[in-house]
């Protein structure tokens, strides 16, 4: 059987490449001829040729975002979440070979053009909503990271160094603050809304999504308002496109005049008259609650954040929690994102530490890749824990959840805050970015050590031959380095 496969995760950082590596490895063992095209953050090393497509018996789409399928017209297409290929590639391929997994589209389907994500069969409503949400978040994250780090750099001159008239005023700090906060950060919510709307309704949803996001800013509805605005704009655009028809002679006016005018008007009116104020009040109540939390309540919240961040290691739950914490940054609350980052660093760091201290619990391959896992952990790439969790989920997942929960709880209880949404350990060296740096480092270290100690006691000793271990090292290193 000749199979061509596409792997893609929402962020395009880790799952995409772990799934690629596991599919190739499993296919080789099973005698399946497979080529994989990755749709990740970096350019794919291989692109399907026309011969690949024409000779393929089937197409496997292991993706959690919209993939254009037009070039596969006439092919059997199997669609699965990317996590399934990352965690159980052998089982997935076995199901395809045995017929247990049915193709979602037949060779005569006209729905092969999947630009309109709503037409994809087999997808639950919840799954579709998640894809739209993550598409918007992914579009927003570069603005958040660039803006957040530039703001953080401006703080390195002093917290008030960007304020004209202040004794510590620095023109460079003000420039960095204007670029990061005044421009990049200010676009965060409109871009989030734009991305969600575009995911739902295509390019026609861009204008109404952007305007809805801007109105979320103006009405004080914040990131919650931007979320609603994105979905609202996207579905209004779909309805307008579907039900508004013009005479053929003036049909060309529909995409350039009718759709933008009606969708912006409807989205804007609903945001101002119906949605904006209630969400603003809800956001204010949430903000007041978070600001009034005592140490105990903060620790409980940090514990919950930590467990959720670690549980699926970069999956939907992890992304949702991080998105919530990033959204709170727009209201001046920086403690949850600090807890997220600490908790997200712990799983790979704790596992890497365990491979160093308790080597007999891991295969030679796992011990070798543990060296790379340190780097992934320090870089806040939680997905580095996935290969270990896949091989022993019942022991590894509880251990990393416990460690991340501890790190999140300590981070919140000790009042740690971060003005950078990402960057891992590297932002610790920028002055004034992390509040209570030593306490923050203690929280991360405590979580990692706790994870490693738990693994010491609950993982079984490994007995493998040297040959088996060495043979697989290179493949996992390749996956990690790109992930």
UniProtKB/TrEMBL annotation:
EC number: 2.7.1.202
All residue ranges annotated as the PTS EIIB type-2 domain in the record: 1-98
Domain PTS EIIC type-2: 129-468
Localization in the cell: Cell inner membrane
Database matches in PROSITE patterns: PTS_EIIB_TYPE_2, PTS_EIIC_TYPE_2
Signal peptide positions on this chain: none
Family matches, as Gene3D superfamilies: 3.40.50.2300
Topology within the bilayer: Multi-pass membrane protein
Catalytic reaction(s) noted: D-fructose(out) + N(pros)-phospho-L-histidyl-[protein] = D-fructose 1-phosphate(in) + L-histidyl-[protein]
Keyword Transport: yes
Keywords for this protein: Cell membrane, Kinase, Membrane, Phosphoprotein, Phosphotransferase system, Sugar transport, Transferase, Transmembrane, Transmembrane helix, Transport
Transmembrane regions listed in the UniProt entry: 129-159, 179-197, 209-236, 256-275, 296-313, 333-359, 371-390, 396-417
Top EC class of this enzyme: transferase
Keyword Transcription regulation (UniProt): no
Matches recorded under NCBIfam families: FRU (TIGR00829), PTS_IIC_fructo (TIGR01427)
Protein name per Swiss-Prot or TrEMBL: protein-N(pi)-phosphohistidine--D-fructose phosphotransferase
């Amino acid at each position: 059987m000749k199979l061509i496969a596409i792997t893609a995760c929402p962020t395009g950082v880790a799952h995409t490449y772990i799934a690629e590596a596991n599919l190739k490895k499993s296919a080789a063992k099973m005698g399946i001829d497979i080529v994989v095209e990755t749709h990740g953050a970096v350019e794919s090393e291989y692109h399907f040729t026309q011969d690949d497509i024409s000779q393929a018996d089937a197409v496997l789409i292991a993706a959690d975002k919209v993939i254009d399928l037009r070039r596969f017209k006439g092919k059997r297409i199997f669609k699965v979440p990317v996590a399934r290929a990352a965690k159980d590639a052998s089982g997935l391929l076995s199901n395809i070979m045995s017929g247990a997994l049915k193709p979602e589209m037949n060779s005569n389907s006209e729905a092969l053009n999947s630009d309109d994500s709503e037409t994809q069969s087999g997808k639950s409503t919840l799954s579709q909503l998640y894809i739209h949400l993550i598409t918007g978040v992914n579009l927003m994250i570069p603005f958040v990271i660039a803006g957040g780090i530039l703001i953080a750099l401006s703080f390195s001159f002093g917290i008030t160094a960007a304020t004209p008239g202040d004794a510590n005023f620095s023109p460079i700090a003000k420039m960095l603050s204007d670029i990061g906060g005044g421009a990049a950060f200010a676009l965060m919510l409109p871009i989030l809304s734009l991305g969600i709307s575009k995911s739902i309704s295509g390019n026609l949803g861009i204008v109404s999504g952007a305007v809805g996001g801007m109105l979320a800013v103006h009405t004080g509805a914040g990131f919650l308002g931007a979320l609603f605005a994105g979905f609202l704009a996207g579905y209004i655009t779909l309805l307008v496109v579907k039900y508004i028809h013009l005479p053929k002679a003036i049909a060309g006016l529909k995409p350039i005049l009718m759709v933008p005018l009606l969708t912006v008007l409807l989205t804007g009116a609903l945001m101002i008259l119906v949605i904006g104020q209630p969400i603003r009040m809800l956001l204010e109540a949430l903000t007041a609650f978070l600001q009034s939390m005592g140490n105990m309540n903060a620790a409980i919240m940090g514990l919950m954040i930590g467990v959720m961040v670690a549980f699926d290691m970069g999956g939907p739950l992890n992304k949702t929690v991080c998105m919530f914490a990033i959204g709170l940054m727009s209201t001046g609350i920086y403690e949850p994102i600090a807890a997220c980052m600490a908790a997200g660093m712990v799983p790979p760091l704790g596992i890497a530490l365990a491979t160093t201290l308790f080597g007999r619990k891991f295969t030679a391959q796992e011990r070798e890749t543990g060296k790379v896992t340190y780097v992934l952990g320090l870089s806040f790439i939680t997905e580095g824990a996935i290969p270990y969790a896949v091989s022993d989920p019942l022991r590894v997942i509880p251990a990393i959840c416990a460690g991340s929960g501890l790190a999140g709880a300590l981070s919140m209880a000790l009042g740690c805050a971060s003005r950078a949404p990402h960057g891992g350990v590297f932002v610790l060296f920028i002055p004034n970015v992390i509040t209570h740096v030593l306490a923050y480092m203690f929280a991360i270290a405590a979580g990692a050590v706790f994870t490693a100690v738990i693994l010491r006691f609950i993982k079984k000793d490994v007995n493998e031959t040297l040959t088996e271990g060495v043979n697989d090292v290179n493949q996992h290193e390749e996956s990690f380095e790109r992930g």
